[in-house]
Structures are given as C-alpha cells and as structure tokens.
Write a structure and sequence with these properties.
Layout: E1 8-9, E2 29-37, H1 70-94, E3 99-102, H2 104-109, H3 111-119, E4 123-126, H4 142-160, E5 166-167, H5 178-184, E6 189-190, E7 200-204, E8 207-211, H6 220-225, H7 231-248, E9 254-260, H8 271-282, E10 287-288, H9 292-306
Parallel strand pairs: 2-3, 2-9, 2-10, 3-4, 5-6, 6-8
Antiparallel strand pairs: 1-7, 7-8
Helix pairs in contact: 1-8, 7-8
Length: 315
C-alpha cells in the first residue's frame, strides 16, 4: 500500500449541489447522542514523553509518561465508576438509546460497563485500542495501523458478541488508510470527519463506506471542560443548535451529533442540563434517534438521489 496513492477519498460536493435528503418517517433531524467511554493507560514504563490525553486535563502541566498522573487519571476514572451509571439511569428513564464508543482497553478493563450498554441495546462503536494511542502514530506505517484496528475489532466481536459496523478513532485522528481498512474488515460507517451535517460516501479501494460526521463543537469537552460554560449556558447552546438544524432539516435533513464523556457530563452538576436537553428534543416532532449503523445502512439505499454525478461541480 503506497503513501503516494491514498486508498480513500471523497468528492467535494457543496450543499447547494445536492439533492434533498429525506430521512425515514419524515424526520428533519437525526440526533446522535454519543457517549465516549474511553480508557487511558495509567502510564508506560520507560516513556519520558507525556501520554497523549485526548482532551483537557483537570490539572495542567503533564507528567512524564512513565509516571502515574493521579489527579488526571482518577478524574477520568470517575466517569467509569460514577458518571456513566448516572447517565445510564437517566437514559433508561427517558427511553433513549445513545451510541457509545469504546476502546479495546475499555472492553478488557471495564467489561462491566460494556455489558451494561450492550444489554440495553445501545450501539457500541470501536474507538481504537487505547484512548492515548493514536492511529496517526502509524500514518506512515499502514500495516502497523492495520494491526491495531484488527486487534480492536477482534476484541470487540469477542466481547460484544457481533462484528462492529461503525468506527470512531480516538481523538478523531484517523489516517488516509483508515477508511479502506475499515471497509476491508466489513464496517459500513466511518465517523472521524467534522466536515458536514449530512452523511456522504468515502470511496476506498475496497468499495464505498459511509461517513457519518462527528462534531467537536457540540461536545462537552469544548462546551464545559475547555469552554468553561455553566450547565445552563451549555444547555442553551445545545437547544440553539438543535433548533437551527431542525429548521434547516425541513428542506433537507441534518445530523446533530452531541459528543459526551462520563467524566465531564456525568457529574452531578451537569446531568440535569443533559436531561433537560433530551426532554426538549423529545417534545419536538420529526426527530430521528438512529444509531450510526442505521444511518449508514439507510444512506446506502438513497445516496444516488442525494448526490447525483451530473450535479457535482469542481471545487
């Protein structure tokens, strides 16, 4: 596999050049609530460079990678010991099923959480082996990237009990090779890109895979942990975003992805804002709560009417 010939690509098709997107049952907006259930290695023996955190730290000034950062590691672990269970209880009461991303190490080190989500029928999306291990570390070593993906998918199938269908890379850091590997391994949805409010096809040497876009703006890290918003300000931001996308969706459907982390949104002072937002959305009509697999499977049946070759224009 050559670095000079990218094994995946997609055309530039601006919104005005697309046909209208009509979601099932007349929905104007597809809402994906993503809970990222991530596992960071506590430390790596012999590594002096700090471990990649994949997000803000509760206490700055990173330590060497071979030293346990007690404050930051246990801050994240709060989400697994407490936060996720608070979120599970809330979603159970509201009757909404989020889409959860899980690292390979989440599956092996935090099996109790994975089983709880799986038993509820929540979508589980593989998310690299470890949260601090990026696929971009292997950008010029594609066969090593392939090994990491294969290991994660094999563990997923063993733990979850079925093959994975969607993928989100840790820290949304995939490579040019990632979509092709995923398609080769039978996945139908790739979710790393931030460039759209609608699904579209990525063409790979193994055939097309559906991009189900993610959002790093509508994300509790950027709203609260980085942005410093209060719970009420974050709630207002979520509502404003929803209203805008829902209104636009009358002409052509939109996706809204809300990215969450149990060690951020699962705290007692924020869970109420999340509950109020979900209740607000449920009070509206023409909203679809799909999994990524559902969006990808559906889009493969309609993509030809959404983006026709005669409508494409060169950038």
């Amino acid at each position: 596999m050559s670095d000079e010939a990218p094994p995946s690509k997609y055309p530039f098709v601006p919104l005005p050049d697309r046909g209208p997107l009509r979601f099932p049952n007349g929905a104007q907006l597809a809402l994906i609530i993503t809970i990222n259930i991530e596992y960071w290695e506590p430390f790596r023996p012999g590594q002096k460079e700090s471990l990649f955190t994949g997000g803000p730290m509760t206490i700055p000034h990173a330590l060497p990678g071979d030293v346990l950062d007690t404050a930051n590691w246990t801050w994240r672990e709060y989400g697994q010991r407490i936060g996720i269970w608070r979120m599970i209880e809330m979603f159970d009461k509201l009757g909404v099923k989020p889409s959860c991303t899980i690292n390979g190490m989440t599956m092996t080190e935090r099996r109790r959480i994975v089983d709880a989500c799986n038993e509820r029928g929540w979508e589980l999306v593989p998310h690299n082996w470890a949260q601090n291990d990026l696929l971009t570390d292997y950008a010029h070593k594609p066969e090593e990237e392939r090994v990491v993906i294969r290991r994660t998918l094999d563990t997923y199938e063993k733990v979850v009990g079925r093959p994975a269908k969607a993928w989100l890379s840790s820290a949304i850091r995939g490579t040019l090779h990632t979509p092709a590997f995923l398609k080769e391994f039978g996945l139908i949805a790739y979710c790393d890109y931030l460039n759209d409010d609608q699904p579209y096809l990525i063409h790979t040497e193994h055939g097309p895979i559906v991009c189900v876009p993610y959002s790093n703006d509508i994300n509790d890290f950027n709203l609260f942990a980085r942005g410093g918003m209060s719970a009420s300000a974050g709630l207002e931001t979520l509502k404003v975003c929803f209203d805008q996308l829902h209104g636009e969706g009358a002409a052509t459907g939109r996706i809204m992805n809300v990215g969450l982390h149990p060690h951020v949104m699962g705290h007692a002072h924020r869970i109420g804002a999340l509950r109020e937002f979900v209740e607000y959305v449920r009070s509206r009509d023409k909203v679809w709560f799909p999994s990524r697999e559902e969006i990808a499977s559906w889009y493969m049946t309609v993509h030809e009417t959404h983006v026709s070759p005669d409508k494409r224009r060169k950038a």
